[in-house]
Design brief:
There is one protein chain. The protein is α+β, with helices and mostly antiparallel strands. The protein has a domain of about 100 residues: Gcn5-related N-acetyltransferase (GNAT) (Aminopeptidase), CATH 3.40.630. Helices cover about 25% and strands about 35% of the residues. The protein has three helices and seven strands, in the order βαβββαβαββ. A four-stranded antiparallel sheet has the order 1-2-3-4, with helices on both faces. A hairpin with a 2-residue loop joins strand 2 and strand 3. The protein is globular and about 40 Å long.
């Protein structure tokens, strides 16, 4: 069973911040072999959804209120599951929790994400619809999707 918690940046402990940054680096920088500026100045204004199993951080997402990433949309980003926890559909649970946390904290509103292009089917099953053309973000094909 996964223990989900949502915290503001100020509520994160130093250990939690280290864990979430380590997970993001493990997947987005090392596994995906992508050099990019992860620390983009938005973490301080975001909510952080952490999913723990047996004391280990296995899933994470960053939740941004309208105006932080897109002028007219809230957003969910840095969606990541630990390689050790994959194959159990945790990504779907993570996104459902992120949607719930977004509504609970910011109210019901339209959400826009920048999805890696190969994950459009995954996000589509969660109600997101692709908009516009694919584009390169940090050398990886992406597509904007809205819900």
């Amino acid at each position: 069973m996964i223990d989900w918690t949502t915290k503001s940046f100020q509520q994160l402990t130093v250990a939690e911040l280290y864990e979430l940054l380590a997970l993001r680096a493990e997947v987005f920088v090392v596994e995906q072999d992508c050099v990019y500026q992860d620390l983009d100045g938005k973490d301080q204004e975001s909510l952080h959804l952490l999913g723990y199993e047996n004391g280990q951080l296995i899933a994470y997402a960053r939740i941004l209120d309208k105006g932080l990433s897109y002028p007219d949309y809230a957003s969910i980003g840095r969606v990541v599951t630990s390689p050790a926890a994959r194959g159990r559909a945790i990504g779907y649970e993570l996104m459902r929790e992120a949607d719930h946390s977004l509504v609970a904290n910011y109210g019901a509103q339209s959400v826009k994400i920048s999805a890696q292009a190969h994950l459009q089917g995954f996000y589509g099953k969660l109600g997101y619809v692709g908009v516009g053309e694919e584009y390169l973000e940090d050398g990886i094909p992406h597509r904007a999707m809205v819900k």
